[in-house]
Specification:
This protein is mainly β and 197 residues long. It is 0% helix and 40% strand. The strands form 5 sheets. A 4-stranded antiparallel beta sheet has the order 3-4-5-6, with no helix packed on it. The chain has a 4-stranded antiparallel beta sheet with strand order 7-8-9-10, with no helix packed on it. The N and C termini lie far apart (45 Å). The mean pLDDT is 87.
């Protein structure tokens, strides 16, 4: 729904997809992201969709393959809104084992990286989408925004350690990646993923 400021009646209301209600309504978070003129939502139930921000009319939808999780096993996902940068939208759905890069205007799949379970999409810096990983091995990676690769020289992976989990939310800037874990606070170089002082 889109409201004027101050809020009154909505300017438009648009349905993007049907999804069953979660067992615990407090566990479901579907933050929105603005990408160009579109508003993008990841349903965490098989669909990423965009509507025109001015009219609410559907712009595009992308259906992704859902991962099978055993019943009663919660996703390790933290609140993880889509990230928009440079004409791309990056999503890490809670019910998928991949990060997807989509064209912001058309929803066309540009690449997918994985399989792994993402905890958080921290942001984009220096041509890398910085993500923290929960499964199969905990760690942090810098995925090339152009290809999704985490291999040098385009991307990086570091601190793959099953005991090393994120603790709070990290930050990215052009100079540093700040990653708090349960044991240390890491300051990483955004180009290489190596520790910086």
């Amino acid at each position: 729904a889109c409201y004027d400021d101050p809020p009154g009646r909505p300017r438009w209301v648009s349905e993007v997809c049907d999804a069953p209600p979660p067992a615990d309504p407090r566990s479901r978070h579907e933050p929105l992201t603005v990408a160009g003129g579109n508003v993008v939502v990841c349903s965490h139930d098989g669909v990423v969709a965009a509507v025109d921000g001015r009219t609410g009319k559907p712009a595009w939808a992308f259906r992704y393959p859902k991962a099978a999780r055993p019943p009663g096993v919660p996703s390790p996902r933290d609140v993880c809104p889509p990230v928009a940068d440079g004409g791309r939208v990056f999503v890490a759905p809670a019910d998928a084992e991949f990060v997807f890069a989509l064209d912001a205007e058309t929803g066309r799949l540009l690449w997918q990286a994985g399989p792994f379970q993402v905890e958080q999409l921290l942001g984009v810096t220096r041509g890398r989408l910085v993500v923290t990983i929960a499964e199969p091995v905990r760690g942090i990676r810098g995925l090339s925004v152009a290809t999704g690769s985490d291999r040098e020289p385009d991307g990086w992976r570091t601190h793959d350690d099953p005991r090393l989990g994120s603790f709070g939310r990290g930050l990215v800037s052009d100079e540093r990646v700040l990653w708090p874990t349960q044991t240390d606070l890491f300051l990483l170089d955004p180009l290489t993923g190596r520790a910086r002082i």
